[in-house]
Design brief:
heterodimer; A: 412 residues; alpha/beta; Rossmann fold; 4-stranded parallel sheet; 17 helices; B: TIM Barrel; 9-stranded parallel sheet; 15% strand; globular
Chain lengths: 412, 255
């Protein structure tokens, strides 16, 4: 193999890069080097594959959503059930792989940021499995709305540190984790959970998540003897989207659809839809990409009913794919996502994570407009158990509140 | 090119204090008062931080000050105006604008540097704008406008990178005493002090040392090693909890 082909891409068009204080450079170089070695190492790959199969439950099913397809009356819809992976979301693919990488780098501790808590949970799980100490940084707002995951992380032995700065959500959790890392580089590896941040994180996360798309390729070829016409994924930072899309990017004739958080609507602070209106490029959190920001370059507040999509930036490779008009982005509102959540649950008996419900909602918009002989694959990146405190409040408020009250009273 | 930073360092007796204020925190008026006080106590180099929502290299004290300033509506314009007014009132001070990459990126680097130069500043610090990234190698652009690009390194910076940084840096080379983020600390790391000693020998530039300096003893430990001692978080903490007088006492004790 030539030297060039072994080099990890540091930029995606004008995006990505390593915009960090000089003192982070040695650690990021060490990580890129370590990852480059693992990528070429059959032993590392065999170990990971074994864990994917026997620990995570991979491959996850590719399920033909017969009833959803018939109801929408358009293209055939397949669902990639990443929610059936261990810990309930695609996040384990990356967390486990990076935990193995941390061991290779001789680290004894791992840290992670989390929004919805799925990456935190996956990291805490991987840490328990690999005998690493784990600390998870989570925005105060997200701790409240994703408490089941917080509890599970603690059960697994992780320390969960509330982040009280800025917007108290995913973006600020990333800042807090990066800062903690700067102070503990020697023994600590940062398992970044999305395909963003300074090089080499976007490429590491993308590569480890690409198992999703590779499985889909094999599975759809078995079932349909051809590749899909449409791939749909929700996009916060972009890890599940890049994982699904990446193995198909060189194919022609496939359309890639990204569903962003339209939140409560287009007002500033009410959404996390970076590609609607006039997207603005910026440099923050160690990379160049599109960021929701004001004219002075200050990052803006965001909102989404789903903590995992509630993020002001987007992974640099997705920014580049957007520029090339390869990935089409649309904003899905909170209301649409909750509606899709209910419909998928009732029609197919699959409770999706609120993040993934955004992808379902986008699929529901698209499918009726598409010919019946076309095939669509929607990534159900996670399952919805974790969202019980949000969905119950939204969809079954009175009963839920009465239940919570009873629980508290019984305890006193 | 020479400017106030060079003059301050040429004229200095002993170690020169460099301080850090976050523009607009607690208020623009208080910034002016604080800097006047600093000037009175021999501080001749001052970093004026243009607040940013996501200050990657800053610890809790300075980060919260950034947020509070932004909550009050501080924009880069306010910061340049503050700098201009101070430069006029205190013509011997070396003012340095410090901020994060997205501020000049949003404004356009040329425009940012023009504004900084027009405000009478002598240097620029952009800790997360990597010189080896596209658009990040701004040293020449700064120098053309009479501004020193002050590069920040750490004891972990590899030799090969340091050499490249030294071809870009001018005026002052800023090293952190530890690998970490800004913030007052109880002790100074011996490794950091040794690093400053070595760096001084090979850099060919005046050395500023910072991160963790929080007592007159710390400043004394740097005497003879560094040309400049940088204090940020500690002074902010003093101001927040004990007021201007405490800052005055502290600066007097450092002098």
């Amino acid at each position: 193999m030539s030297r060039i082909s072994q080099m990890l891409p540091r930029h995606f068009g004008p995006y990505g890069g390593r915009y960090v204080p000089e003192m982070l450079v040695p650690a990021l170089k060490e990580l890129a080097q370590g990852y480059g070695q693992c990528k070429q190492d059959p032993q590392f790959q065999a170990q990971l594959t074994d864990l994917y199969h026997n620990y995570c439950g991979r491959p996850t099913p590719l399920y033909f959503a017969d009833k959803l397809t018939k109801t929408l009356g358009g293209c055939k819809i397949y669902l990639k059930l990443e929610g059936l992976a261990h810990t309930g979301a695609h996040k384990i693919n990356n967390a486990l792989a990076q935990a193995l990488l941390a061991l290779r780098l001789g680290k004894t501790k791992i840290i992670a940021e989390t929004g919805a808590g799925q990456h935190g949970l996956a990291s805490a799980t991987a840490a328990a499995r690999c005998g690493l100490q784990c600390t998870v940084f989570m925005g105060e707002v997200d701790i409240r709305r994703q408490y089941p995951n917080v509890y599970a992380m603690k059960l697994l032995g992780a320390e969960v540190i509330p982040v009280t700065d800025g917007t108290k959500t995913l973006k600020d959790a990333v800042n807090a984790t990066l800062k903690y890392w700067i102070q503990h580089l020697e023994d600590t590896h940062y398992i970044l959970g999305s395909a963003l941040g300074p090089f080499p994180f976007p490429v590491i996360v993308r590569d480890f998540q690409s198992i999703i798309g590779r499985e889909v390729r094999t599975q759809i070829l078995e079932r349909e003897k051809r590749l899909p016409n449409h791939l749909v994924a929700c996009v916060g930072g972009g890890s599940n989207a890049m994982g699904l899309f990446h193995p198909f990017l060189h194919e022609s004739g496939i359309r890639f659809h990204g569903a962003e958080a339209g939140g409560r609507g287009p007002k500033i602070g009410d959404h996390a839809a970076r590609f609607t209106n006039t997207p603005k490029v910026g440099i923050a959190q160690g990379y160049k990409s599109y960021f929701l920001q004001n004219d002075h370059g200050q990052l803006q507040d965001t909102h989404s009913v789903s903590a995992g999509l509630d993020y002001a930036g987007v992974g640099p490779e997705l920014a580049w794919l957007y520029d090339q008009q390869l990935v089409e982005f649309s904003a899905i509102t909170d209301v649409q996502a909750l509606e899709a959540f209910t419909i998928l649950t009732r029609l197919e008996g699959i409770i999706p994570a609120l993040e993934s419900a955004h992808a379902v909602a986008r699929a529901m918009e698209l499918a009726p407009t598409l010919p019946q002989d076309e095939i669509m694959v929607v990534n159900i990146s996670g399952r919805g158990d974790k969202d019980i405190f949000i969905t119950a409040r939204e969809l079954d408020r009175n009963n839920w509140m009465a239940f919570l009250k009873r629980e508290v009273e019984d305890d006193q | 090119m020479t400017n106030n930073i060079d003059r301050v360092l040429r004229e200095r007796k002993g170690i020169q204090l460099m301080t850090h204020v976050v523009a607009g925190y607690p208020s623009l008026d208080m910034n002016v008062e604080l800097i006047r006080l600093m000037a009175k106590h021999g501080v001749r180099l001052v970093e004026i931080q243009i607040p940013f929502t996501d200050p990657l290299a800053d610890g809790p004290t300075i980060m919260r000050a950034n947020q509070a300033a932004l909550d009050q509506g501080i924009t880069p314009d306010h910061c340049f105006e503050l700098g201009a007014a101070l430069a006029k009132e205190l013509p011997d001070m070396g003012f340095i604008f410090m901020t994060y990459a997205n501020i000049p990126f949003a404004m356009g680097m040329d425009h940012f540097l023009n504004r900084a130069a027009a405000s009478g500043a002598s240097g620029i610090i952009l800790p997360d704008l990597a010189w080896d990234e596209p658009g990040g190698d701004y040293a020449d652009l700064a120098q053309e406008r009479g501004l020193h690009p002050i590069m920040v390194i750490s004891p972990d910076t590899e030799e090969a990178r340091l050499e490249k940084i030294l071809t870009r840096a001018s005026g002052l080379l800023y090293t952190t005493l530890k690998v970490g983020i800004t913030g007052a600390g109880a002790t100074l790391d011996q490794g950091g002090l040794d690093y400053v000693r070595d760096l001084k020998k090979k850099a060919g530039l005046p050395i500023a040392a910072g991160f963790g300096i929080s007592s007159p003893e710390h400043v004394a430990m740097l005497r003879g090693l560094a040309d400049v001692a940088v204090m940020g978080s500690h002074i902010l903490n003093l101001l927040d909890h004990q007021g201007l007088e405490a800052v005055q006492d502290f600066l007097a004790a450092c002098g």
